[in-house]
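Quick one:
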Amino acid sequence: MSDDKTIFKRIIDKEIPADIVHEDDLCLAFHDVAPAAPIHVLVIPKKEVTNVAALTDQDAALAGHLMLTVGQVARQLGLEEGGYRVVANCGSDGGQTVDHLHFHILGGRALAWPPG
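Output:
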């Protein structure tokens, strides 16, 4: 195992277990181990992309697929009626702690704004 793998790459490679709610050829969705809401799921690409800022024109189809998967997973989790929040942190000032693109789906309660 390479020491430079992110925790998300290790989850993709099945080196670390995760409570997976969706998987396809391009992405993976799983419950966050430190949830910030009653429902907190992460959607990540299997391709190693650092964050939203690192997406290129060649990633357009992947980015669209990720957004469609966010909606699909939210519906699967029963969040469509009450609503939910989708967050992508970018860089250290944006609160990104894992250098692998990921979208948080947060729901199951009313969420405050601003998020802090």
